[in-house]
Amino acid sequence: MADDSFDEECDYLFKAVLIGDSAVGKSNLLSRFARDEFRLDSKPTIGVEFAYRNIKVGDKLIKAQIWDTAGQERFRAITSSYYRGALGAMLVYDITRRATFDNLKKWLEELRHFGDSDIVIVVVGNKFDLEQKREVSEEEGRKFAEKELVCFIETSAMENFNVEEAFLQMITQIHKITSQKNL
Ligand code: GDP
C-alpha cells in the first residue's frame, strides 16, 4: 500500500493505528485518506496493512504511516506489536450499529494497555451518510469522547465527509505533542 513518495524528505515520520470492530469502515477510511478510494466490498485479506501519506503541518512535512488491522480484529488477534511505537490511534465505530459503539470501552482498555501513555486518540463515528439508520446520536459520541478526554468526529468514508479532517486532527495533535517534547 505504500506510495512512491517514501523516499521524499520529511521532517517527521509518525505511526498511527486504526482500531474498532469489524466492518465499521476502518480500511475505507484509510483508503480514502491515502488514495481517495472507496470499496463497496468487505475486505478479504487477513493481516496488517498500512499506508503512507505526506502532510504539511505548519512548515513541517510529516509522513503519516497509518496501520489497518486488515480484518484481524475479527479474531481478537491484535497483538502488542500492532500498537508498538504508535503515536496516534483512531478508534472507529459505526453510527448505525450500537454494539460497535458499546465496544469502544473495550478497545480503549486495550489501547491504554498496549499503547504509549500519551498516545493521541480520536474517536470516529463513521457512516454519517446513513442518517436514517443511525443508532448512536452525535451527542452520545461526543459525550463519550469528552468523558474519556479524547477527540471526536463523525465521518463518512463513502461520501468522503470529514475523513481528511479526522486524520488531520490526529496528526496535528501528534505533531503538537512531539514538538513540545523536543523543545
Ligand atoms: P473495516 O472492517 O472496519 O475495515 O470496514 P470496511 O472499510 O471493510 O467497511 C465495511 C463495510 O462498510 C464495506 O461494505 C464498506 O463499503 C462499508 N462502509 C465503510 N465506510 C462506509 C461509510 O462511510 N458509509 C457507508 N454507507 N458504508 C461504509
From TrEMBL:
- Principal place of residence: membrane
Q: Name one GO molecular function term.
A: GTPase activity
Q: Where in the cell is it found?
A: Endomembrane system
Give the bilayer topology: Lipid-anchor
Gene Ontology, cellular component aspect = endomembrane system
The record's keywords, sorted A to Z, are: GTP-binding, Lipoprotein, Membrane, Nucleotide-binding, Prenylation
The entry sums up its family as follows:
Belongs to the small GTPase superfamily. Rab family.
Question: How is this protein named in the record?
Answer: Uncharacterized protein
Give the originating organism: Aquilegia coerulea
